[in-house]
Amino acid sequence: MKAYLRFVWRCVRLSFVGGWPYYLWMSVLSIFVLLGINAYCKQLVYGLITTGMSDQVSWGLYIANFTFLVGMAAAAVMLVIPVYIYRNRELHDLVIFGELLAVAAIVMCQFFVLVDLGRPDRFMHIFWRFNFPISMLTWDVVALGGYLLLNLHICGYLIYCAYRRRHPSPIFYVPFVFIAIAWAISIHTVTAFLLVGLGARPFWNSAIIAPRFLASAFAAGPAFIILTLQVIRHMTDHVVTDAALKMLKNIVTVALTVNMFLLGCELFTEFYAESAHMVSTRYLFTGLHGRNALVPWIWTAMSLNVIALTILLLPLSRSLRYLNVACVFLIVGIWIEKGMGLIVPGFIPSPLGEIVEYSPTANEILVCVGIWALGLLLYTIFVRITIPVLSGKLTHDRLYLPYEREDAHAIVGAS
Amino acid sequence: MSGAGGNAPGSEQAAYTGRLTRRSFLRGGLGAAGGLAALAASLNPLRELDTSELTVEKFLQKHYKEMTADEMEGVLARIRTEVEQRYAVRPELRDIKAMDGVEFAYALHLGRCIGCRRCVHACVAENNQSRSPEIQYIRVLEMPRGSVDIERGNHHYDRPTVPDAGHYYMPIQCHQCANPPCVKVCPVEATWQEPDGITVIDYDWCIGCRYCEAACPYWARRFNFTSPQIPNEQLNPNMSYLSNRPRRQGVMEKCHFCLHRTREGRMPACLEVCPVGARKFGNLLDPDSEVAQILRTKHVFVLKQDVGTLPRFFYYFDEDYPRSHAGISLPVLQPHDVGGTR
Questions:
Q1: Domain residues for B213?
Q2: Coil, strand, or helix at residue A169?
Q3: Which one, A20, A134, A221, B315, has the greatest CB density within 10 A?
Q4: Does the structure's ipTM exceed the value 0.95?
Q5: Mutation target among B7, B24, B185, B191 for the A interface, most CBs of A within 10 A
Q6: CATH code for A6-414?
């Protein structure tokens, strides 16, 4: 126990130590977190009127980000499956970065739900009267909480074993890895069901939403991990092979193709049948009665996704620079597609046919930026701690410091 | 450790070994102080927070269905005091229970409604809805004749006088569904269907997630996006726990068929004010009630029957057949009666 506390203390200290790019990055993130806290405090005082939401469009950017981030969390399985099921060697040392991303993403998700509540002070009510299994929101609470615990356990156990220089015992983590694979699929499915189950909203009331969610998540998640690995490769001495990035690239390409195909299926059904079901789709893509706030958003998303897919399918993307560009494009494209392109149009027109448009306020955007900054801060700290531990630089009894070897020995010898 | 930029490896060692040096201590202390100051500055808006909602008593208040009669009395007494402090009016606040053998239903005569919106404003006055920002439970649509497609309705019609010859009018409010999607989705059971069919909200239990608002096909639910404002002299002091007591910021509200009136044998405020008698209300289980008779004899329909919500709010047209049809009785032709007149 004492050893464990010392480990935690060392991790805390380590997260405050780094070169100047690290300090700069962490300071910028901290400033955004503080701005987010400030904006949220205003929201607490004046209510959700500080957002762009209304009785007509009652969910906005918060739930949109939540939906997107559930996908990012679920996407960790796209590293776990190759490693644990197909025994992929290239990704073996990188899988933990996917799982840590899942942890950070789930924490962000939970904050996005919290800031969306009108009465966060009553959050505990969910534990006193839990409308399970009837309300899909309670399923989401279970799914996200469980997934967070699973990933915390797997990552925590593996990192602590490396720190203690013990061989991790498979029985303590492999079963959880396999549970987490199924659980990852379930978190995004349940999040889709949250929307799909509403007969009042024909735009969401479609069986294809859950598969679309998964496909887009399995494109955006690994794309984010590719970018992270590029940073790790440049900023640390952790080994990331080209083959590993290529493997992830292939996953992204297939997932994005499937996502575009499913979207095409949905659009055909809507536009060809021209039923009442498609009013929201028409509003989204072409505008309705001269109201077209979402039209630029969705066409931006469509263009970004198509450009990303084109780059990925061409030999061009063998160059890592173009791969990075494609990843950024598709992350932004999918973020828009799931947020402004899926959550918001579900509310327009209203069930009584009224068209009230939505655009987020500055305060609302600051809260979102704050939560994103917090998530990135957490993820940076996770990576900061994990790399020296996994490479054996930080263990309970030993130090390997390539740059100051004598000093390190002196310190170890002295203590 | 020497030279510029030598800090990182040195402090990294310190971090690995967990040892504090004077330098790292000083730097850490300064960083922590600066961080705390920045955090305090960012929390500044909280000084204006209404802390009256953050009492231990309210934090521990039970769900409506779990409160004993004594506990409910205590809560009612507390709310009376709060309302009096806030609005300078002593309210008649009670917890009125559903009557046995009653299932309420509403029927609205589309041929009679003239779209004057008196029901909308009577409802606001009766049920202590926020005047600023304005919250209304009833929305009246001006519909073009020849269509029942509500997407073609005009929500914001503004005429010197109504009715307009080319239109008919369709007021929409909570349909008190027998299969309410809003109740299904609530994660904390803050909204439920009472034995008399009215779907109510415990305003002290709602967490404000607005899932019910997304689930309602009739757009019947409203959210308090900010602290509701009602001028003191406009407060209706006759109130009950589950209906029209003043709400707070961050919770849902909706039509409850004026249960503080109807559970005591009176009519809803929207019905009483209607100048043309387009609104009918009563007990569905009583065959002699006006609504039961309307359901038996008129051309009745419900809105969005396809979503399976089984509303208790019915729209109807005139008598079952026009009077000019009196005495007409023709033999019906069979679908395959080839010998009959085509």
A1: 104-320
A2: coil
A3: A221
A4: no
A5: B185
A6: 1.20.1630.10
